Amino acid sequence: MKKILAFIISSIFLFTSCNEELITIVDEYNAPYEIKAIASNNAVYISFWSGVIASDFAGFNLYAGTANSFNQPADAIKNASGGYPTIAGSNHTRTNFVIQIPTYTFANGTLYYIAVSAYGTNDLVDKKYIETPISTILPVIPRPEGTGNGTALTADTQTVANVANGLVTCTGGWGVQYFGYQTNFNAVVVVTNSNDSSFDTDAVYAVNGLYIFKQTGGNGLAKIWITSANAYRWAYQADASQWWGI
Description:
40% strand; five-stranded antiparallel beta sheet; mainly beta; elongated; single chain; 9% helix
């Protein structure tokens, strides 16, 4: 009789232990962080880090609009199936994501706001879903970009500098900040020092790397990334006063 009772107690303990593992609920995720808005030509990208590890994690909800507030998850951009999350994901380790905001129509020169959240579905929580609160809403203004070559550095229709004897010199009406050698056109997006005094108007720089030019006494920005001796990539923000980025 003692042996049978011991077996029953052991079985109950085993069943309870397994049950506790099965019904464990993850009711919150670590929120995306180091979020950055990246302007493009009639498009916007969002860059962020995330490392959610949970069986009910489904992906990321992306938000975009001309207002600087969002209702979650109602304002999230729906996926191709008409549901959430916007971008499907799975369990992963710490990763940097760079995602083009899908579906939404962006126009160059218009101020938008974007955000991202981690999202998952779970029938064991009251709302049937889990979503990190939006803590960061970022402004961004799409702008034209393209490529060029030759000794005149031109962004859109603005010639901002000239190249001669292996040196870069600003043209009249423009100042420059030099960010050195870069391997990524979007290594610098936001211009934190946007005052005219932060831009050199008479400096000469070596032909190499990433430059951001500003109109003296104006709000225009131009980004030039010199990729070889005779080629460069450019972006132009006609009015950056609402968001000092490019």
